[in-house]
Write a structure and sequence with these properties.
With 112 residues, this protein is α/β, with parallel strands linked by helices. The protein contains 4 helices and 3 strands, in the order H-E-H-E-H-E-H. Helices cover 41% and strands 11% of the residues.
Length: 112
């Protein structure tokens, strides 16, 4: 887990050009309201990089703004989910996300 958009990009792409990235996650759960680099910019950079462009990205955020939904899908999100405020409901949503994306969904083969 990372704490802001800059850490997310560093984790996925390496700290500098030529620095190896960390092992690629099976899926990215992305909040659009991140400090330093917002989640939509993180998503845009994920899709712009050949190493991560096929990585499944689920926006999991509290934003109910239609503009955020449209921008998220426009930048290539695989799904947009409004996270519940209640912790028990939130945990249930995350459980279902894991079941679908990691067990049922067919992920693309790793990049070579």
């Amino acid at each position: 887990m990372v704490h802001d958009g800059a850490e997310a990009l560093e984790y996925l792409h390496g700290a500098e050009a030529g620095t190896p990235a960390s092992p690629s996650p099976a899926i990215v759960l992305l909040d659009i309201k991140l400090p330093k680099v917002d989640g939509l910019e993180v998503l845009r950079r994920i899709r712009a990089d050949p190493r991560t462009r096929l990585l499944p990205v689920v926006i999991l955020t509290g934003s109910a703004e239609e503009q955020d939904v449209l921008r998220g899908y426009g930048y290539g999100a695989n799904s947009y989910i409004r996270k519940p405020v209640d912790f028990v409901q939130f945990a249930e949503v995350v459980k279902h996300l894991g079941m679908y994306w990691l067990l049922l969904n067919e992920l693309p083969p790793p990049s070579r």
